[in-house]
Amino acid sequence: MTLIEALTSRLPEDCVQFDDDVVEAYSHDRAIFEGHGTASVLVMPRTTEQVVAAVEAAIEADVPIVPRGAGTGLTGAANATDGCMVLSLHRMNNILEIDETNRTCRVQPGVINSDLKAAVAERGLFYPPDPASFEMSSIGGNVATNAGGLCCVKYGVTRDYVMGLTVVMANGEVMRTGRKTIKSTTGFDLTGIFVGSEGALGIITEITLKLVTAPPPPATAVAYFGELEPAGNAIVEIFRQGHEPSLMEIVDQASLRQVEAVFPMDLDVDAACLLLMQTAGESAPERIAAISKICEDHGASFVYHVDDPHEGDMLIEVRRKVWPAFEHLGKALLPEDVAVPRQHLPELLAGITEIAKRHDVQLPTIGHAGDGNMHPLLVFDGNDPHETARAKAAFEDIISLALRLDGTIAGEHGVGTLKKAYVERELDPVQLSVQRSLRTLFDPDGRLNPGKAL
Length: 454
Ligand SMILES: Cc1cc2nc3c(=O)[nH]c(=O)nc-3n(C[C@H](O)[C@H](O)[C@H](O)COP(=O)(O)OP(=O)(O)OC[C@H]3O[C@@H](n4cnc5c(N)ncnc54)[C@H](O)[C@@H]3O)c2cc1C
Fold this sequence. Notes:
alpha+beta, Uridine Diphospho-n-acetylenolpyruvylglucosamine Reductase, domain 2, Uridine Diphospho-n-acetylenolpyruvylglucosamine Reductase, domain 3, Alpha-Beta Plaits, eight-stranded antiparallel beta sheet, five-stranded antiparallel beta sheet, 35% helix, binds flavin-adenine dinucleotide
């Protein structure tokens, strides 16, 4: 049976799209340089049963399946392979239940992160994971990449909130994992294995998430430093003294200058970097004052802190403007995503500066400084082969640097195709072999998102 017959005999007409232009639009994420193949068809189910039907059709026609959320990934993880079925979960976007008593919710995978945040906030609850893409990325994609974000330094990453899943397996069977209860000790943790699995183990069609009570508005501080190293040391000291900031971001000089050039806001463009920090909870104002004092003691050239949440939001705005400010240059932007244990942050920052000089590349750096997760941003002329080669060499050197510092090659964006070649450098051979065996166990025919992640 052909793929068209297999699909149209099982699914309503409007779930299946063969138009080349439409299929192409759904065939890649936002990673630059990661090529993608030509998909055969786009399938847009509304229910778990329709996902099962799509998987059965793919089995019958023997084509690979590439699951897709909102396509905001930065690693090529949702990119089509030749002849595949792109299975977009974006229409499965209902919030099925918000359980205030147990502080949980049940959602379909296509729900946009910010829509969930808004819905639970109406009940005085909070869903913390907040990738910078939270207004466009889907919860299913967040789960499949184990997305991080700005407030993860205090609240943890997506993994810390996933309690249970409904998954359509590669053979079309439906599996329910996890629990509704706060506690359970029954069986192995099959929920966890799907978090960060990049569509390679199964298709997630329903998610039960943990929620927390909404914290009071945060207090905010900004601190400029004349050099990067003391800023790194101040961060280490803040945690050593037991503070738990709910946000701690760093913006380096090149980023400050570009933001100021495009969105003038009176930034100190001579500073080496700006630290942006927030504290949440009852003693937030006292905590932010103590954190500010640590920054002063470490030689910050200017420190300012506020309790007013609106003023705080305005101070944090500079972080959100960095990416759009660099987009104004019209050049290629390749974001790195490495993370190191906090105490190695000063060495990571110094190393990134050295790599930029050695390869003569533009390498502004921003990142989630509080959890050691940095996003050096390679800015280059993608049409100039020499500049591109230098940028790629710098990209590899940053990965090597992170690994030397006991870090990881992929802090929060996932592996996709972008980082696949480096996985063997991080995972030891035994673990790699177990992981590959698990993938084969879940998907013996290699049908799900082939060529990605491992
Ligand atoms: C401007 C910008 C800022 C960003 N900031 C951050 C950030 O701060 N933190 C961060 O972590 N990421 C960030 N990202 C990256 C991206 O938004 C995240 O990786 C996000 O989680 C991807 O979600 P998505 O819905 O777009 O998934 P997609 O890109 O569509 O897919 C991502 C992966 O998930 C798989 N997948 C999607 N849905 C399912 C499903 N239902 N079942 C099984 N597999 C599935 C896909 O096959 C693919 O492997 C940013 C991206 C952009 C463009």
